[in-house]
Amino acid sequence: xxxxxxxxxxxxxxxxxxxxxxxxxxxxxxxxxxxxxxxxxxxxxxxxxxxxxxxxxxxxxxxxxxxxxxxxxxxxxxxxxxxxxxxxxxxxxxxxxxxxxxxxxxxxxxxxxxxxxxxxxxxxxxxxxxxxxxxxxxxxxxxxxxxxxxxxxxxxxxxxxxxxxxxxxxxxxxxxxxxxxxxxxxxxxxxxxxxxxxx
Length: 199
Ligand code: 5GP
What we know:
By secondary structure, the chain is an alpha/beta fold. It has 8 helices and 9 strands.
C-alpha cells in the first residue's frame, strides 16, 4: 500500500435555517478570515431561482435554467435536491465526492430535506447544524430588508415555511440561536473546531 493511501475522508457540515435566519451572513463571517477558512470548502449549489442583488455567480450559487437542472438530475449529477417556492436547488455530486475523497471538509447550506438526506448518505462524517432567528418578527424584517422587491404572497410563503422549519430543529445535531452575529459565529466556530478534533 502506498503512503497516504489511507487519507481520512473529509467531514461535512450542513447548515440549515429558515430564509432570513441570517445563516448566509454567518457563513460569510465564518469564512472571512482565520484558519477555518483554510479548513473548509464551501459547496456551491445549483439553482433555478433568479439571482438576487449582491449575489455572486458561482460563489453563492450556480444559476441555471430548469431545463439544465432537470438534465443534470436525470444524468445523476445531483447528490440531493429540493424544490423551494417553485425553484429547484441541488448539490453537485462530483464536487462533493471529489472533495471528500481528497480529505477536504465541506460546508453546505441546505434545507431540512437536504440536511437529512446528506446525514442519511454520510452518517459517520456529517454534522447538521440548525441556525434559528431570534424571533419570527426579526425574521420578517430580515427577509424584507434583503429583497429589493418582495410581494406579500412570497413574504407569507417564506414565513409559513420558516414556521415549519423551526418545528424541525430537534432533528439536527446542533442548534444555534443567531441573536448576535459575533456570538453566533464564535459558537459555530467552536462546534466545527470540536468536530474536526482541533479543539
Ligand atoms: P434561498 O433562495 O433563500 O437562497 O434558499 C432557499 C432554501 O434552499 C434555503 O433554505 C437554502 O438553504 C436551501 N438550499 C440552497 N441550496 C440547496 C441545495 O442544494 N439543496 C437543498 N436541499 N437546499 C438548498
